[in-house]
Amino acid sequence: MPFAVYVLGLAVFAQGTSEFMLSGLISGIATDLNVSLAAAGLLTSAFAVGMVVGAPLMALFARTWPRRRALLLFLAVFVAVHVIGALTPSYGVLLATRFAGAVANAGFWAVALTTAVSLVPGQLKARAAAVVVGGVTVACVVGVPAGAVLGERWGWRSAFWAVALVCVPAVLALVRNVPAGRPDAETAPVPVPVPVRTELGVLSRSRLRLTLLTMALVQGATFCTFSYLEPLLTRETGLSAGWVPAALALFGVGSFIGVTVAGRFADRRPTALIASGMVALALGWSALALTAGSPPAALALILVQGMFAFGTGTALIARVLDEAPEAPSLAGAFSTTAFNLGATLGPWAGGLALDAGFGYRAPIWVSGALMGLALITAGARRVRIRATG
Questions:
Q1: For residue 115, which of 42, 62, 168, 192 has the smallest C-alpha distance?
Q2: Whether 371 contacts 282, CB under 8 Å
Q3: What is the DSSP letter of 178?
Q4: Count of CB atoms situated within 10 Å of the CB of 77
Q5: 220-277 per-position pLDDT tens digit
Q6: 114: helix, coil or strand?
Q7: Which of 55, 135, 169, 184 could join 333 via S-S bond, C-beta 3.0 to 4.6 A?
């Protein structure tokens, strides 16, 4: 595996820490800015909306740029908005910085995924995608729990400062190791980009659309529970706030295992991996909802659900990239958009359930319902494939 692929994973680690760390900071943000838990949860949704909007737009915006330049620009913007977020006393400004940071992150993701798979032979595409996604899982293991510890000791703003600082070595590594993405003008012509209409045309395929919808629902289920994990553990499971970083780390360990396994097997047996992962997720969310009052059961299921969520998600990303070879610039953006449509839907739906007074377990039941819809969608895709041959 080229070292540049691991560098992309490092940069995704820095950004993934920001995307997921709010699950351990939500109560502190709500108290400091005098907003409800549901409103604080919308900061996660704002990030996801920015990813949804930014992925295709930034991929198109940067499609003719040298890849290294695009990646560095997106990462620089990401750092700037985190500095602003760490300084602002306004919930509205913080919400705006989450959106803007997500747009930059989406652009980075879209370029990073297509860059990673372009650096390896076809049989290693899923493994290259797994390395990039693995940056998020390492963030869950290390970055997110560290952010929770910082938030507990020095306030949630310290976690934002830490994210900005962690991005600095990622910038240096990108400069030194990631190829610019276009040949030297004196030795070879600059490749002509695939027309935008051609790239967008792949969305007319029902198989691809159903794959993207399945991905969105799977991630919606994941983010629905994950966004409200801290109040669930401290107010329903009965654990102290000091247990939250450990629980987040367990989720991260599980996600790392899941991505690693998916990277090894998704190229060979994608259908079996995705199907078994989705069934396990549906059963796991239901089990967590029933046993959330038991600390051992809750912690064990958090580990297991992290494993299946990210393993299945990685396999779905690889499937999208495989089903959209005519969209070299936008295939990664399609995956990023679907992933974050789910990350938008999940916290929003979970917040509605909380505001309706159904209790702190309500988001988990919503996760189970979303997984039921995902299984139906995946079944419809299989029927469509058989009908069309």
A1: 62
A2: yes
A3: S
A4: 18
A5: 999 899 888 888 999 899 888 878 878 878 888 888 888 888 877 766 777 888 999 9
A6: helix
A7: 55
pLDDT in tens, 320-369: 877 877 776 677 778 878 887 887 788 889 989 988 889 899 999 999 99
Q: Is-contact 134 259, C-beta < 8 A?
A: yes
| CA quadruple 313, 120, 181, 191: dihedral, nearest 10 | -100
Give the other-Cβ count within 10 Å of 374's Cβ. 25
Which single residue is written with the structure tokens 């005519």?
A: 326
Helix, coil or strand: residue 337: helix
Place of tokens 């600390």: 295
Give the CB-side neighbour count of residue 121, counting CA atoms within 13 A: 1
* Cα separation, 297 vs 318, whole angstroms: 32
Per the document, the length of the chain is 389
Q: What is the per-residue pLDDT across 86-107, written as a single tens digit (0 to 9) for each?
A: 998 899 999 999 999 989 988 8
Is pLDDT at 187 greater than 60 in this prediction? Answer: no
* pTM of structure: 0.72
Banded pLDDT at 123 (limits 50, 70, 90): low
CB atoms within 10 A of CB 3: 11
